[in-house]
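cron nightly-structures :: item 1 of 1
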Amino acid sequence: MEVYYGLLLAVLSCIFIGISFIIKKISLKRLGFKGHTRAGAGGYGYLKDWLWWLGILSMGIGEGLNFGAYALAPASLVTPLGALSVLVTAVLASKILHERLNLLGKIGCTLCILGSTVIVLHAPKDEDPDTIYGLAERLKSSEFLVYVAVVVITSLILAFIVAPRFGESNVLIYVYICSAIGSLSVSAVKGTGLAIRETISGNNQVTSWLFWFFILFLLVTVSVQINYLNKALDIFSTAVVTPVYYVTFTTMVIIATGILFEECVRYFFDCCCYPSLLRYVYDDGYYCNRDFV
């Protein structure tokens, strides 16, 4: 039953997050018209705009609901539901911001939703840890540490070498940084949620250093996400940023949680390393029955 509550929270989260994209975009456009240094050029004038903070409040509510969803349901189920925020943002951007979504954009949004549905229906069951110490043991695995190193190094290269030259012409640069760092924040959200759930159950974790480590790590990663998401929204249209951000963020989170909980990795290799796609399809359904159903 907890899983269904988690999925419900995830759906409500998508609505608030989708609305927050629109509000922040309006704020950034308004500041640009007033002559302030744009966020894409390194300006932070939006921090003084009440409308931008309203967008942050909407996103905060959405992330709070998402926080509860991650605590109750596996990340491999919660994250793909973010496709609903793509739909909400695309509709509102068309009606409020008058951003035209062409045929390819509409097809892309539809594929995002269909793909998310398939992932949710056929996602492997993650073996979620029951305590923050169990999660900490998984976080110390060599595979996950390598993933963290790759994310940090590539993000630094993009932020300080690639972005100054190509950041205003390629939406993937800022969005990748936001998504890659965001995939690390999911583990912090999971850890904080586990600590709160344990505390409510009578096993106080507020005094544990792990709890405060997760809180600090979450604040740092979310700050980076907000900064680079603002840069992307300031330069590119909302209808472009939202689907690209959703796809990259979902992909990175599935990879990160797959490394942590192993099931997704085994699922991936069973699909991609099979010698022949035709053999996979016609092999009496053995792999399908064993791993997908």
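cron nightly-structures :: done
The CA atoms of residues 140 and 205 lie 20 Å apart.
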